[in-house]
Specification:
Length: 368
């Protein structure tokens, strides 16, 4: 098979980062960081997927003890966690990769078991998430949250700031603020959840205030040219949706432009199949047009749709989730148009440090 310069494999300059291609590792929770610490197997996972000047975004990483809500998810609020991340970052950098850490707080998507002293998870509201039926049929339940008092919110903002500082200390090249999928920041942003009457609730400006304070805090630590933001205005995960997602997305983009944010990563609301082939109907085009920085899309992309989206100027970069977790050498496989390993959903979140994690095979280059 002969290598061709396909659009996904062309270089792209993202601010201070000269990327050699446009195939990004999407943030992927893998539930393998025992005691919230990324171990050697995590370093191996990311280094397998690192390529020279390729962008990887690490899985959602908690900014504090109250930020946690899922088994074996990493954190970056203690010295021990920072030390653990250093070996992961070093492993990626040794391969020449550019590595961002996604920082999050789950808010009400948690249970008493994860919270300090078994206290209630915190949120902008005291409304509980309804039990969620997952793809495998299991039901996920969450505890009743406690509404944060207005005077407690600066502490959460400063937890994000400390996490950003810790990311820099661990050697990450930047952070991605997780403002998507129904977690704490989105709980504040969207009007199906936010029922506050103070300056953090009500109109769009108030609902986005917390997000923008967090983003500003990260900027204060590392500069806007190292801060990316993930948004999913159209999603309704965890009972979190907005009555006007277009206005919400555009409001955030306008604010992020003023702050000079490095990149905006957005999740496609719709993927369709025509004659059995995946098609992305470019529902994010108006956001892409308005955003001044680097635009990253994710959700349902394959090689063909990724190439098309880049060549038509719909996006700068494409983040791949499921295909990247199953194909450590995804950019190489795209370059060679080689077959892909299938992903195994049953091991997405299992705790084994090898199976379904670092044991997906590389392409046998002698056979291509
Ligand atoms: C196993 C798994 C874990 C995920 N974890 C995260 C996460 O930690 N943070 C996040 O923003 N998105 C997460 N996502 C969403 C992905 O980043 C991505 O947007 C999604 O998988 C769609 O892209 P794909 O069709 O290429 O897989 C996760 C998805 C999967 C499948």
């Amino acid at each position: 098979m002969e290598a061709k310069a396909i659009p996904l494999l062309t270089p792209y300059t993202m601010g201070r980062f000269d990327l050699s291609h446009r195939v990004v590792h999407a943030p992927l929770t893998r539930s393998r960081c025992y005691n919230n610490l990324p171990g050697e197997h995590v370093a191996l996972y990311y280094s397998q997927r690192a390529s020279k000047a390729g962008l990887l975004i690490a899985e959602a990483t908690g900014v504090s003890q109250t930020a946690q809500g899922y088994p074996n998810a990493p954190g970056i609020w203690t010295k021990e966690q920072v030390e653990a991340w250093k070996q992961v970052v070093d492993a990626v950098h040794r391969k020449g990769g550019v590595f961002f850490c996604q920082i999050w707080h789950v808010g009400r998507a948690s249970t008493y078991d994860y919270q300090p002293n078994g206290q209630a998870p915190v949120s902008c509201t005291d409304k509980q998430i309804m039990p969620q039926v997952l793809k495998d049929g299991t039901v996920e339940e969450f505890s009743t949250p406690r509404r944060l008092r207005e005077d407690e919110i600066p502490q959460i903002v400063s937890d994000f700031q400390l996490a950003a500082r810790n990311c820099m200390e661990a050697g990450f090249d930047g952070v991605e603020i997780h403002c998507a999928f129904g977690y704490l920041i989105e709980q504040f942003m969207k009007d199906s959840v936010n029922d506050r009457t103070d300056k953090y609730g009500g109109n769009m400006e108030n609902r986005c205030r917390f997000a923008l304070e967090v983003i500003q805090a990260a900027i204060n630590e590392m500069g806007a040219d190292r801060v990316g933001v993930r948004l999913s205005p159209y999603s309704n995960c965890l009972d979190c949706w907005d009555s006007d997602p277009d206005a919400l997305g555009l409001y955030m983009i306008d604010a992020m432009n003023k702050l000079g944010i490095l990149y905006c990563s957005m999740v496609e609301p719709e993927v369709i199949k025509v004659d059995g082939k995946v098609q992305i109907p470019y529902k994010l085009l108006h956001f892409r047009k308005d955003f001044a920085g680097t635009f990253i899309v994710a959700g349902g992309y394959n090689r063909e749709e990724g190439n098309k989206a880049v060549s038509e100027g719909y996006t700068d970069l494409v983040a791949y989730g499921k295909w990247f977790l199953a194909n450590p050498d995804l950019p190489k496989r795209f370059e060679l148009n080689a077959p892909l390993n299938k992903y195994d959903r049953s091991t997405f979140y299992t705790p084994d440090p090898v199976v379904g994690y670092t044991d997906y095979p590389f392409l046998d280059l002698s056979s291509v």
